Amino acid sequence: MRRLVHSVAALSSFALVLTAVPGTAAADKTLVFVAEQDHKVIAIFDARGRKLREIHTDLGPLAADTDGNLFVAPVGLPYLYEFHRPYDGPPTKIYLPSNPAQAVQNVAVDQKTGVLAVFSYTYASPNYNIISFYQPRASYPCNVFSGPEPVGSSGAFDAEGNLFYETLDRRAPIESLAGECSAGFHQFTPFMMAEPPPAMDEFLAFDSDDRLVVQVSGGRCDGKPALVETYPHPRVEKFRHGTIGPPIAATLLAPHDKCAPFVAALTSDGGHLWASETIELRGSVLEYRYPAAGPSRPVNAIVGIPNPRWVTVTPPLTP
User: Fold this and answer.
1) How far is Cα 135 from Cα 294, in angstroms, rounded to an integer?
2) N or C, fewer C-beta in 10 Å, the chain?
3) CA pair distance 279, 267, nearest whole angstrom
4) Which residue(s) pair with 300 in the sheet?
5) How would you list the strands of the sheet with 16-18, edge to edge?
6) Do 275 and 305 contact (CB within 8 A), yes or no?
């Protein structure tokens, strides 16, 4: 499977900042949340790399909503955390269904409705995932879904509120669910791809034009760039099946050091993306132009971060 803050602290000794290109997203009010895997800390930076605050917590994939709430999916635990501005108090817990017993893997947010989609797996069958939907500020799910095929661990909502996610079925590597918390069951749609990528690297999103964005490769430490492909919006055909046309754009992300970065989030204006790069447990969080013709080099970087495993930004992009 392919796979803000009240007080401004002085920049810590491990965070060094490259000057941002004038006029990029670094000039806005973006906050960058970085999970430092070795320290059980989420560091909060502004887009110029100034460290603002730390949250000490269990770690996992991150997501943020348009109100600035931060969601943490601590891998292997049966609940999520929701941190509210200014991120200085205890989090709210969001619980997974207990029957069967489950552990969280990832989380996605519908930025228009605030509904959460939480990806989890059962302890009895770790390769068979479940998706649970939650209303804003709810601690328990409004709907729970497990499909005919094992689902992947990453997904995103499009502009219409449909959840798209990767699967383990290479014949139909993308599926969607419509309905969120509405009464009745969800509409499930598998999508065939005209030119399926050889793998997905745990990033799937929709850009400001509601096009599907998938990372095809990343993480190699061979000096080669990461590849991000942009596809037309998936199209539903008859009989609840769909198709995804061939990619319409390819963005190559040049390494800052020598390891190809993992994409984490698109910026709210849709013109940049943030990614993380780790080499020998030290890493960087990098901002790139998106989409880009030819190799895209970082326009902004926060470097010297200990093992930055998961990253998200607020305000998020709303397709």
Assistant:
1) 41
2) N
3) 24
4) 287
5) 16-18, 300-306, 282-289, 272-279, 262-266
6) no
- For each of the domains in the chain, give its residue range(s) and CATH number, in order of start: 16-314 (2.120.10.30)
- CA geometry: angle at 315 spanning 189 and 9, to 5°? 140
Q: Bridge-partner residues for 31, per DSSP?
A: 46, 314
CB 264 within 8 A of CB 213: no
Q: Which runs of consecutive H residues, i.e. helices, occur in 49-138? A: none
φ, ψ (nearest 5 deg) of residue 82 = -120, 115
β-pairing, 300-306 vs 16-18, is antiparallel
Specify the pairing of strand 151-157 against strand 163-167: antiparallel
If you search the block for the tokens 């989090």, which residue do you land on? 91
What are the tokens at 281? 């447990």
Closest listed residue to residue 81, CA positions, set 102, 107, 101: 107
pLDDT values of the chain reduced to their tens digit, one per residue, 319 residues: 332 222 222 223 233 333 333 344 444 689 999 999 878 999 999 988 899 999 999 999 999 999 999 999 998 899 999 999 999 999 999 999 887 788 999 999 999 999 999 999 887 776 678 899 999 999 999 998 876 666 777 899 999 999 999 887 777 889 998 888 887 656 788 899 888 877 776 789 999 999 999 998 877 788 889 999 999 999 988 767 899 999 999 999 998 877 889 999 999 999 999 999 876 667 899 999 999 988 889 999 998 888 898 999 999 999 9
CA distance 33 to 85: 13
Q: Quick one: DSSP state of residue 85?
A: T
The neighbour count for residue 222, using CB atoms within 10 Å, is 8
